[in-house]
Design goal:
By secondary structure, this protein is an alpha/beta fold. The chain contains 11 helices and 5 strands. It folds into 2 domains: about 5-125, Response regulator (Rossmann fold), CATH 3.40.50; about 145-210, Arc Repressor Mutant, subunit A. Helices cover about 50% and strands about 10% of the residues. Strands 2-1-3-4-5 form a 5-stranded parallel sheet, with helices on both faces.
C-alpha cells in the first residue's frame, strides 16, 4: 500500500526537502505541499492524505489550529505528525491534545523520516522520550487536573491504570511487559481496552490524558530513562 503524505511548512526549502526524501520511498507518495494552515486544510480536503507532516509555527493560520481542523473534519484515519525545532513548546503540547500522533525534530536525519511516517501510518505514536520529558515538565504543571477526565479514568481496571502509567513514561509494549511481568500480547489487549474506554486515538493522546487526569504528575515518572 502506498502512503499518501501532505507536507506543510512555510519555509519552501524545508518543505521541499522533506517532500524529496519521502518521494524517494517506494511506498510513499507526497500528494501535495502547503505553506500555511489554510492551505493545509484545503489540500487535506482535496487529496485525503494518510499522513500530514505539519509545521507548528506558520504565518496566518498556524499548525495548531490546522491540526485540530483537519482531524475534526477527516472521515478517514488521518494522522498528523508535528514538525518542531529542538526546544519543544506549548504549541506542540496543544497539538498532541488536538489529536496529533507525535512530533519529530526538523533536524532529524533524513533516513529517520520515512520510518517515522510509517510508524504513525501503522497506528504508532512518535513520542521521543527526551523531548516528551522536557515538554511535560514545562507545561503539565500549569494545567489543572480535569475532573471529567478523572471520572473517565475510573472506568479502567487497576491493571489498565498500570499500563497507562507506563505509556505515559513513553514505554514500548515490550518494556511494559517486562515492568509489569505480563506477556506482550496481554499488554496489547490492555492498551486496546484503554483506548476504547477512554476514547483515545493513540499513545500520544494517552500520554496527555494520563497527565491531565491526574494519574501521573510531572516529576513522578522518569520519562525516557
Amino acid at each position: 500500500m502506498t502512503i499518501r503524505v501532505l507536507v506543510v511548512d512555510d519555509q519552501a526549502l524545508v518543505r521541499r526537502g522533506f517532500a524529496m526524501v519521502l518521494d524517494h520511498q517506494p511506498d510513499m507518495d507526497v500528494v501535495a505541499e502547503a505553506g500555511d494552515g489554510l492551505e493545509a486544510i484545503e489540500a487535506t480536503r482535496e487529496q485525503r492524505p494518510d499522513v500530514v507532516l505539519m509545521d507548528i509555527r506558520m504565518p496566518g493560520m498556524d499548525g495548531l489550529t490546522a491540526t485540530a481542523a483537519v482531524l475534526e473534519e477527516a472521515d478517514w484515519p488521518l494522522k498528523v505528525i508535528i514538525l518542531t525545532t529542538f526546544d519543544p513548546d506549548e504549541y506542540v503540547y496543544r497539538a498532541l491534545q488536538a489529536g496529533a500522533s507525535g512530533f519529530v525534530l526538523k533536524d532529524l536525519p533524513p533516513e529517520a523520516l520515512a520510518p517515522a511516517v510509517r510508524t504513525v501510518f501503522e497506528g504508532g505514536a512518535l513520542l521521543d522520550p527526551a523531548i516528551t520529558r522536557r515538554l511535560i515538565g514545562r507545561f503539565a504543571r500549569t494545567l489543572a487536573v480535569d475532573s471529567a477526565l478523572g471520572r473517565r479514568l475510573g472506568t479502567l481496571t487497576e491493571r489498565e491504570r498500570d499500563v497507562l502509567t507506563e505509556l505515559a513514561r513513553g514505554a514500548a509494549n515490550t518494556e511494559i511487559a517486562e515492568t509489569l511481568y505480563i506477556g506482550t500480547a496481554t499488554v496489547k489487549t490492555h492498551v486496546s481496552a484503554i483506548f476504547t474506554k477512554l476514547g483515545l486515538r493513540d499513545r500520544a493522546q494517552a500520554v496527555v490524558f494520563a497527565y491531565e487526569s491526574g494519574l501521573v504528575t510531572p516529576g513522578s515518572n522518569d520519562i525516557g530513562y
